[in-house]
Write a structure and sequence with these properties.
Helix content is 67%, strand content 0%. The protein is mostly helical and 422 residues long. Helix 1 (3-23) runs antiparallel to helix 8 and helix 3 crosses helix 4.
Length: 422
């Protein structure tokens, strides 16, 4: 075996191992969402997380992968190949089947973010349609623009981004491509669904609807945290050689520092704001830090990572409260804030704290402008596509279960079984 073959083998095993870690985020999301909601809907929530991965795996293989990575240059979308993977050759020599698996778990992550915001009141059949559309259309198209050779990520001298901003849009592991897209869709879905029964009083005051199991939610967050060590360092797609070893070590460090900073910030803010440190909000604070660092984990310093985590963890309780109490949008798990708001913030702060191009390091406004433009374009596409999707679903049969089903629980009415015995 040559040195080159050995390096490719190591890189392939690293990619596949981290893909497994990202897949492990699916039970993390499932436990987190189930714990933050009521026990009568647990089977329904767990089921939806399985559906996201089932639909994502089949449809992304059959069509989405080609649309995301097929030939298309700076075009709107790549070329669909209908399950034929022979069109793709990774520049680093990684096997296309392994790269497909790695990208599939990212697609499923983007899809599953929405289920928590739409929990406890969504028709299961309509959720399946949503999962199909994001895996088949919404995610692959905006993913093509950034990661698939499309125009946002094109750094060629004559490209639109270089001519306009002097640099391409940068999203290392998905603050924008994965998390902000999932968060924006969660926000839109919650708007179209309306609040859960009893969430708001007649005079507009918000009522807390506690989740049934904070232990499950905490375990889910720990699992997500572990999965993020595949999500971010795995995006290096290589582990062989000194450059890659240093890169993945740096990314893992910045990822963890932002997570703990996010949790610490939320703990302190809620302690000051409510008189007691909120455990449930602190869990989301950790996730906020993880989401925020995902775009720039490869280019920010450890101090920059801590600052990003602190900002996201500080904003989190205020954003969740504003969406709930001021906008009257019922998001049971805070997905709109954790993934949407913090995904956007993290993408923008990459333009400030990048040690190689950031504004705070004396490189001017160009990179920040590229980040701002990129997040606007990606989330504008998501808003238009998401609004159209949910509007059509609501008009064609509705997306919300009947009041009796919601009151008694989706588990029995939608699936004929309960997660917990009497």
């Amino acid at each position: 075996m040559t040195t080159e073959d050995l390096g490719t083998s190591i890189d392939t095993m690293w990619m596949l191992f981290t893909a497994m870690l990202v897949f492990w985020m699916q039970p993390g999301f499932a436990l987190c969402e189930a714990g933050f909601t009521r026990s009568k809907n647990t089977a329904n929530i767990l089921y939806k997380n399985f559906v996201d991965f089932i639909a994502g795996s089949l449809l992304f293989w059959f069509l989405g992968f080609g649309m995301m990575f097929g030939n298309g240059g700076e075009g709107f979308v790549g070329m669909p190949n209908f399950g034929d993977l022979s069109f793709f050759h990774h520049p680093s020599g990684l096997p296309v089947e392994g790269f497909l698996i790695f990208q599939t778990v990212f697609c499923a992550t983007s899809a599953t973010i929405v289920s928590g915001a739409m929990a406890e009141r969504t028709k299961f059949s309509r959720y399946i349609i949503y999962s199909i559309i994001i895996s088949l259309l919404i995610y692959p198209i905006e993913g093509h623009w950034t990661w698939g050779g499309g125009w946002l990520g094109n750094a060629a001298e004559d490209s639109f981004m270089t001519r306009t901003f002097g640099t391409a849009f940068h999203d290392f592991a998905g603050s924008a491509v994965v998390h902000s897209v999932g968060g924006v869709l969660a926000f839109i879905g919650a708007i179209f669904l309306g609040p859960r029964l009893g969430k708001y009083t007649k005079d507009g005051n918000s009522r807390a609807i506690p989740g049934h199991n904070l232990m499950a939610a905490a375990l889910g967050v720990f699992i997500l945290w572990l999965g993020w060590f595949g999500f971010n360092p795995g995006s290096q797609l290589a582990a062989s050689g000194e450059v890659n070893r240093l890169a993945i070590s740096h990314v893992l460090l910045t990822t963890n520092l932002s997570a703990v900073a996010g949790g610490a910030a939320t703990m302190l803010i809620t302690w000051r704001k409510y008189g007691k440190p909120s455990f449930s909000l602190m869990l989301n604070g950790v996730l906020a830090g993880l989401v925020g660092i995902t775009a720039g984990c490869d280019v920010v310093s450890p101090l920059g990572a801590v600052i990003i985590g602190l900002v996201c963890g500080t904003i989190l309780p205020f954003s969740i409260e504003y969406i709930d109490k001021k906008l009257h949008i019922d998001d049971p798990v805070g997905a709109s804030t954790v993934h949407g708001v913090c995904g956007i913030l993290g993408t923008l702060m990459t333009g400030l704290f990048s040690t190689s191009a950031g504004l705070f390091y004396g490189f001017g406004w160009g990179f920040f402008g590229a980040q701002l433009f990129g997040i606007i374009v990606i989330d504008s596409w998501t808003i238009v596509a998401g609004f159209t999707m949910f509007y059509v679903l609501k008009k064609k049969g509705g997306i919300r279960v009947d009041a009796r089903v919601e009151e008694e629980g989706l588990d029995i009415y939608e699936h004929g079984e309960s997660c917990f015995s009497a």
